Amino acid sequence: MRKHLLLCCLTAILLNMASAQDLPRPAAGKSLVIFERPPVTALAVQIRLFDSTTYIGLMGAGGHLIYECTPGIKLFWATAENRDFMQADLAPDQVYLVQILAVTGALQARVKLQPYNPTKKNAEKIKKQFIKRIDKGKEKKIGATLADETPERTEQAIQNGMERYQTLKDKEKKITQLTADMHI
C-alpha cells in the first residue's frame, strides 16, 4: 500500500513539474510574444511597452506580459529614460520570448529589449531559466488590469517614440531584430 501511495505521489510531482514547463500557445493563426522582466534590476522602475502606436502595458521588475497578436512585421518598443526598439517578423502559431532589461542610466534605468535566440550558445539553458522565472512570476494579460492611467502622457510618448524611431532609421542605426525563426 505504501509503495502505491509513494508511486502516486511521485507521479503527481513529475506531472506537475512537466506541466510547469509548458508555455501558453497562441490561438490558431496568431503569434504569442512573452515579455519578461528579471526581478533583480531597477526594482522601482516601471517600463512602458508598445506595439508600434499601441500601448501594451507597464512592466515592473519580476513580471511578465503575454501578448497575442496577428503575425507579420511589428515594431515593439519600450521606454524608461531612453527608448529601445525591436523590429519583429512574427510567424503564425509561434511563441517568442523577449527579455526587458533595465540597465543603469544617468538618472534612471535605461531599457533594452533582448529577444531569445535559439541559435546562440547556451540557448536551452537560457530558455529553461526564462520559463522558470515566468512560472514564478505573476502573469499579466492585456485588458482592464493594464489600462493606461495616463492617456495624455501615453499619446505624447507614442508621438515622441515614433519620431525617435524615424530618426534612427534615417541615420541607419542598428535596431534589434526578432526574426520569424527565433521562436521557441
Please explain how this structure is put together:
It is a single chain. The chain is an alpha/beta fold. 29% of the residues lie in helices and 34% in strands. The strands form two sheets. It has a five-stranded mixed sheet with strand order 8-7-1-4-9, with helices on one face. A five-stranded mixed sheet has the order 3-2-5-6-10. A hairpin with a 4-residue loop joins strand 7 (95-104) and strand 8 (109-115). It is globular and about 35 Å long. 22% of the residues are buried. Residues 1-20 form the signal peptide.
The share of residues in extended strands comes to: 25-35%
Sheet/helix structural class: alpha/beta
Head-to-tail CA distance between termini: 42 Å
Instruction: Give the biggest beta sheet.
Output: 5 strands, mixed
Q: State the share of residues found in helices, binned by percent.
A: 25-40%
Shape: globular
If helices are DSSP runs of H or I spanning 4 or more residues, what is the number of helices? 3
- Rounded mean pLDDT is 79
Uncertain parts = 1-20, 141-145
Please count the beta strands (DSSP E, at least 2 residues each): 10
How many domain units?
1
Keywords: Signal
Protein name: DUF4369 domain-containing protein
